[in-house]
Design a protein that fits this description.
The complex is a heterodimer of chains A (291) and B (310). Chain A is mainly alpha-helical. Chain A has helices spanning 13-20, 25-52, 56-59, 73-80, 83-113, 120-131, 139-148, 155-178, 183-191, 196-207, 209-225, 228-233, 241-246, 256-276, 278-285. Chain A folds into two domains: 13-52; 77-285, MetI-like (MetI-like fold, Orthogonal Bundle). The chains are: A mainly alpha (291), B mainly alpha (310).
């Protein structure tokens, strides 16, 4: 409908195709609406970043400072302070537990998917139900046990708990990926005399690499952001990044930029991982039900 | 684009004799994970049940005493527990209800013809990925603080300048922050559902004279219904356990206004060190969650299995 006026220079081929269509008024309107909605949801994150790039007086000014020269001052202050050990603890707990989930979960998922035993469904539902067992179920005995074994405020004990939280999800997810591999592949490997270990490492792992990535991502997200066990089972030496942020609760206005800088850094690993692996994210979050 | 994975379905082994021979070998790979889960969840749970019949406060040494069902009787009579149950229900239903509706709206937007879909989706999922403790702090201190927060300053021309949102509307604040966090989750799941729709069907409906609304209600909505249900169920299993944002935003207060079951458990177990009472709360919470989760998950995954086999 809308035509290109004759005196315009020749348009490239692609532009011609667009020009031949009616002007997409509705597309513009819906885009504006869409971007407004996205802006509202993204704004707190953006604001966190902006506050983090301000100086303390700018961050806590009234009315808020909109125009300012960004500075990394507060990031440096937080990094030079006692934040790094918290961050490292988070890394140990989440990477350690994720690794353990894969080591324990892969054989289990393999057994459930490829070599089903009687009552496989029941075993599966038992596994998945433990994921949604409220922490109320085992909290008190675990706490008493950790206390008696001197394992309170121990980062490896925390990693062991995170493994329990993520293992059911891991087994379930890995199984959903394994089910997509043609069983003939495993039969062939066994006929060729491959041992169980060889079968897992040489066939299963390469074939479901995306599945392992998805599982690892979900485990990392849940354990990195975990707060309840962290706050109750650690105090100082094993405290993780979310615990560092608790220190800001009572903090008054003078600490806004530091708070925002710490919050930004604490959130960064999961935010980046989730953004990079969006496809795996959806599958992991729905426990493999949605691809 | 998106499809639904078969989440059930047991494969029949091809060689029956081999199955008999290595019957125990089949169970072996399952064992480490199984034992691990049993040791860290089931045995403690058994202990939780055991403790729930005792009066035991860690702050009073030697107070370990069998009291039968007293702790459970307290659950019925104690007002604080009823309040916590009510708050949990209120929080879960409002967060899931609002975020499913918003998630459906945003997903529909992102599935239509708009500029920059990919970037929109990327930015949209950020609230879900941000550490919940960090998100809650940002809301509480930099956005809602009555003196220095952005929102009171923006609203000052409307006479709402010094509203202390967190203290005056504590539950609404918690719900808002949780909706902010869970809407992206719902959006992702619903968007996957919308994208699995065949566009030709909608096109055909339009040719037949259906309005956009009619097509949405009669064709799209039934199609994404299982995705809405999946999102709502998984979401509620998580939201029932909300702890981080309550701890950071309101600490369960003012008074008991935002104390839900997990937060009450935290108070009873780790502030009051009342082990027996905390265990009884734990047992009841487990029973309630298990009923919802088992029925819900079984139903949902059977729906998805059926869809995949169609």
């Amino acid at each position: 409908m809308s035509s290109v006026s004759p005196d315009l220079p020749a348009l490239p081929r692609k532009a011609k195709v667009i020009a031949a269509r009616p002007f997409p008024t509705s597309k513009v309107v819906w885009s504006v609406v869409g971007w407004l909605v996205v802006f509202v949801f993204f704004f707190p994150v953006l604001w966190m970043w902006l506050e983090a790039l301000k100086t303390e007086p700018q961050a806590a000014s009234s009315p808020p400072t909109i125009l300012f020269v960004p500075t990394l001052e507060e990031f440096q202050t937080v990094l030079a302070g006692d934040f790094p050990p918290f961050f490292i603890n988070s890394a140990i707990a989440s990477l350690g537990s994720t690794l353990l989930v894969l080591v324990l979960g892969l054989p289990a998922a393999y057994a459930l998917a490829i070599r089903p035993v009687k009552r496989t469904q029941d075993v599966l539902f038992f596994f998945i139900s433990t994921r949604f067992l409220p922490f109320a179920a085992s909290l008190v005995p675990l706490y008493l046990l950790a206390r008696d074994l001197q394992l309170l405020d121990n980062i490896f004990a925390l990693a062991a708990i995170y493994t329990t939280i993520n293992l059911p999800l891991g087994v379930w997810l890995l199984r959903s990926f394994l089910l997509e591999i043609p069983p003939e592949l495993f039969e062939a490997a066994r006929v060729d005399g491959a041992s169980f270990g060889t079968e897992i490492l040489r066939i299963v792992v390469p074939l479901i690499a995306p599945g392992i990535a998805a599982t690892a991502l979900i485990c990392l997200i849940f354990s990195w952001n975990e707060f309840f066990y962290a706050v109750n089972f650690t105090s100082s030496t094993a405290a993780t990044a979310p615990i560092f942020l608790v220190g800001f609760i009572s903090g008054r206005s003078l600490f806004y930029a530091k708070l925002a800088a710490a919050a930004t850094m604490a959130s960064l690993p999961v935010l980046l991982a989730g953004w990079i692996a969006q496809k795996q994210l959806i599958r992991g979050l729905t426990m493999g039900a949605v691809k | 684009m998106s499809s639904i994975a078969s989440s059930g379905g047991v494969r029949v082994p091809t060689a029956a004799s081999a199955a008999r021979r290595d019957g125990w070998l089949r169970r072996l790979p399952l064992l480490p994970a199984f034992v691990y889960v049993v040791v860290i969840t089931q045995i403690p749970f058994a202990l939780t049940i055991y403790y729930s019949f005792f009066s035991w406060n860690l702050l009073r040494p030697g107070s370990f005493k069998f009291t039968g069902l007293d702790n459970y009787a307290n659950l019925v009579t104690d007002e604080s527990i009823r309040t916590a149950v009510w708050n949990t229900v209120l929080l879960t239903i409002s967060v899931i209800g609002i975020s499913v509706v918003l998630g459906l709206a945003v997903a529909t937007l992102l599935n239509s013809e708009v500029f920059g879909k990919g970037l929109m989706r990327t930015l949209m999922i950020a609230p879900f990925l941000i550490m919940p403790t960090a998100g809650a702090l940002i809301w509480k201190d930099t956005l809602l603080n009555p003196l220095f927060g952005l929102l009171p300053n923006l609203l000052s021309p409307f006479g709402l300048s010094r509203v202390d949102w967190v203290n005056q509307f504590p539950m609404a604040t918690v719900v808002t922050v949780e909706v902010w966090r869970w809407t992206p989750f719902m959006m992702l799941i619903i968007l996957a559902g919308l994208q699995s729709q065949n566009p030709e069907v909608l096109e055909a409906a339009r040719v037949d004279g259906a309005t956009a609304f009619q097509a949405f209600r009669r064709i799209t909505l039934p199609l994404v219904r299982p995705f809405l249900e999946l999102g709502a169920l998984l979401g509620s299993l998580f939201v029932v356990q909300t702890f981080d944002s309550i701890y950071m935003l309101t600490y369960g207060g003012p008074g008991q206004d935002t104390t839900n079951i997990p937060f009450l458990l935290y108070l009873v177990a780790f502030q009051g060190f009342n082990i027996g009472q905390a265990s009884a709360i734990g047992v009841v919470a487990v029973i309630l969650t298990t009923i919802v989760a088992t029925i819900g998950l079984r139903t949902l995954f059977s729906i998805f299995q059926v869809e995949a086999r169609r």
